[in-house]
Amino acid sequence: MTFEDNLLLSKGTDVVDYYKGKHGFFVLVDVEVGENGAVLEGLSAEFNDVMKQAYQQGFQYVHFDADGPEVEGLRAFDW
User: What is the CA radius of gyration of the chain?
Assistant: First the structure.
């Protein structure tokens, strides 16, 4: 998740369903992104790529965790 993605989710948005936790965000995987290649407007290409990969692997949500493990093949941001 980029710094800009974090800012958008922290301010609040209706582009994607999510819950802000103490150390990160739980984001519901968007079916439109996975099935139709739709783009979540205002969120980075990297964020959209995570949603696509999560959908393809059958996940229902993604936990973006401030101190969680990095996932091979996905870009990590240190901010």
Answer: 12
